[in-house]
Write a structure and sequence with these properties.
Length: 709
């Protein structure tokens, strides 16, 4: 994008847009928001970073079942399809688009109750979630290698010291139905409190398989969460969180005509069964400071399978064209973090800590099929049947040490500085069998030493008003590509690092009824990791391989801003948006330079506007619109773009302290929009390269009922 049009567009966005920072509000003011994801919890006005906080009013809204339903409310946050639920996020244009093979190496971290599910975001169902905090920009001090672009931090609702219960049920289009229940209360004999929440959601999905005569993208999603808090006195607190999620979803999301009417004879699967646990213990009984220990464990088994040819014997006749793919993935992570922080009130606050994580993953891939042509075809006189199986093992051990200092040059001028050093060693081995015979093996043992951190100044020049400037360095580990057809020089790729310069302004005005937050950033990326792909064998869709290389440099610049205004005691307005300009430079494919251009899945603008009315007696309504600019689907040879779109959602209902009934509609005007696009050949006999897209959700409507005690 040329500089002047970008500046004009970004300036207009900054003047009028808003990030939907939501919290439960019952008074005339908007209330204080405290961000808990950083190393130290801070009010959002004092945090020198661009952040969006989605609270229970948004996460618990009728029609919102999954993280997918609220992502559009976060400026400069995009996601890529290719799965039944979002797994791969992009913040400020940084993030993965998929992971069909190789080792997990995320650019955007995702934590749920401190458990690391980066790249496994399917577990993010929304029932009984308290908040989602999105920190944009590198979190080099806080989280290191897995947060180059930022961090998404979700927390379930905490146990309460008084008894409470809630039941929720919903019904909607595509035979959607949901049921959730939670109960909380104290256990006085154990100086503790507990909370249990369960939820289930089922839907036939919007796609219809015309060959099989039934829906093949059904969703069956069940989640159970348990929280236990032990607090015998004010010096000791222990918080235990347990999660179990079973998502058994169909996956049949691509059609030759790019419609929602598929023809596959072997529709796929996109399932995830995950169990996670975390223990966070805090001890403040030492005069030296406060000790925090966080231990986590996660075990996730997932299946991703699809019909590779997207058709059946009748649809491809007279040709024989039949391929399929399946990957069974088992990932386990364990982590331990220890922090020692200075006592509150110290002239210079300090915090030191250490972090260790082990990630182990096994993948079993199978693929194969048949391509055949009619006998005597003058243009084609060949065909083949092939099968392949790959079994891989991967383990990565990360050790990190970090420190942070916080102080004041003056009562109105605060500073912060942090540093993190990380050492990562990975081990990978696999073996491939093709057409029943051993076809080779890979073995890698990369090691990376990386460092990041931040320095910031915050000027609190008036009550409830502040400005900040920060400089942060983020990093991401290197890795390797698996395809044996790649030249040796392209088998490995280097670590990536970036510098992020950011300035911002935040204020609460009009007696707390108006909140404004703005940020401008400029990132310089070194050894930018770029994921691309190519089809090695015409006619065999399973030979479309992905691989990662390094461009010399890149830049990501933009604006984010938020305004939220309680116009009257009954009416609240918000507008959220981000502007983004990206570029990568000096990238080559097969030795041929690729023209510098925008990075994939990085739209030039995103926006969300909403209006909320809360009437007397419990009546309420909300209307929101979200929009996204066009973006590149991938890097060359995929040179295709999405189309810009705007979606409108609405809900209205009646609520008392005990009962609620709400009707909702999502994508009210039934707009078609793409969430992922591939450019390759998948149609015999000539297999011309074409764009194939996965469409986002169409119009959905329903009702939801709730009871609270």
């Amino acid at each position: 994008m040329p500089v002047r049009p970008f500046v004009r567009r970004a300036s207009a966005v900054a003047a009028c847009c808003a990030a939907l920072s939501s919290s439960t509000v019952v008074a005339s003011d908007l209330g204080e928001i405290v961000v808990t994801a950083p190393l130290r919890a801070q009010p959002v006005l004092e945090l020198p970073a661009s952040v969006t906080v989605l609270g229970p009013d948004v996460l618990g809204a009728a029609g919102a079942q999954h993280l997918e339903d609220v992502l559009a409310l976060v400026p400069n946050l995009n996601w890529s399809g290719g799965s039944s639920r979002p797994r791969y996020l992009q913040l400020r244009g940084i993030g993965e688009l998929e992971q069909y093979q190789g080792a997990p190496n995320p650019s955007v971290g995702f934590l749920l109750d401190d458990v690391d599910f980066s790249g496994l975001g399917m577990v993010a169902t929304l029932f009984d979630l308290e908040r989602i905090e999105v920190l944009r920009g590198p979190q080099g001090t806080r989280y290191g290698a897995n947060a180059l672009g930022g961090l998404v931090y979700a927390r379930s609702r905490e146990p309460e010291d008084t008894f409470g219960a809630e039941v929720q049920a919903g019904f909607g289009r595509f035979d959607a139905r949901s049921f959730g229940a939670s109960v909380t209360g104290p256990i006085a004999a154990l100086d503790s409190a507990v909370r249990l929440a369960v939820h289930g959601y089922r839907s036939d999905g919007a796609y219809e398989n015309r060959f099989l005569g039934r829906p093949t993208n059904a969703r069956d999603e069940r989640t159970a969460r348990l929280r236990w808090r032990y607090a015998p006195d004010e010096r000791l607190g222990v918080d235990v969180a347990l999660l179990h999620a079973r998502l058994d979803n169909g996956y049949d999301a691509f059609a030759i005509d790019n419609s929602r009417r598929t023809l596959s004879d072997r529709p796929g699967e996109d399932s995830q069964h995950a169990t996670g646990a975390s223990v966070r213990a805090r001890w403040s009984g030492w005069h030296a400071g406060e000790l925090t220990v966080i231990a986590t464990h996660a075990d996730s088994d997932s299946v991703h399978a699809y019909d590779g040819d997207w058709g059946n014997a009748r649809s491809w006749a007279p040709y024989v064209y039949d391929f399929d793919y399946r990957a069974d993935r088992d990932r386990r992570t364990r982590s331990l973090e220890m922090r020692l922080a200075s006592p509150s009130g110290a002239p210079v606050g300090w915090l030191v800590g250490a972090y260790a994580q082990r990630l182990a993953e096994t993948i079993a891939e199978t693929s194969g099929g048949t391509l055949g042509y009619p006998p005597g075809d003058p243009a084609f006189d060949f065909g083949f049947t092939t099968s392949a199986a790959l079994a891989s093992r991967y383990r990565a051990d990360s050790l990190a040490a970090f420190a942070q200092l916080d102080g004041e040059f003056a009562p109105s001028l605060a500073w912060s500085a942090g540093l993190r050093a990380e050492r990562r060693r990975a081990r990978y081995a696999d073996a491939t069998v093709t057409d029943g015979a051993p076809a080779g093996a890979n073995s890698f043992d990369p090691r990376d030493s990386m460092a990041g951190g931040h320095a910031s100044l915050t000027w609190r020049y008036a009550p409830n008003r502040s400005a900040y400037a920060s400089l942060a360095r983020g990093y991401k580990a290197g890795g390797f590509n698996l395809s044996g057809a790649l030249p040796e020089a392209r088998r490995r790729f280097a670590p990536e690092s970036l510098w992020n310069l950011e300035v911002g302004w935040k204020a609460v005005l009009a007696d707390g009824r108006l909140r404004i937050e703005t940020a401008a950033f400029h990132m310089l990326r070194d050894d930018l990791q770029i994921r691309t792909g190519e089809q090695l064998v015409p006619g065999d869709p399973n030979t479309f391989v992905f691989y990662t290389g390094n461009a010399a440099t890149g830049r990501n610049s933009g604006l984010e801003a938020s305004v939220r205004w309680r116009a009257t005691p009954a009416v609240e307005l918000g507008l959220a948006a981000g502007a983004l300009s990206t570029r990568f430079r000096d990238f080559a494919i097969d030795g041929e330079p690729v023209p510098d251009r925008e990075q994939p899945h990085a739209p030039a603008w995103q926006a969300a506007a909403d209006a909320i009315w809360r009437g007397a007696g419990g009546w309420h309504a909300r209307v929101e619109a979200t929009g996204t600019a066009a973006f590149r689907f991938d890097v060359p040879p995929n040179d295709t773009r999405s189309r810009p779109y705007v979606l409108v959602h609405a809900r209205a209902g009646y609520e008392t302290p005990r009962w609620s009934a709400v009707a909702y509609v999502r994508n009210a005007f039934d707009r078609e929009y793409a969430v992922r696009g591939f450019f390759f050949g998948n149609e015999p006999p000539d297999f011309p390269n074409r764009l194939y897209v996965q469409l986002g959700a169409p119009r959905e409507w329903g009702v939801q009922f709730g009871y609270r005690h």
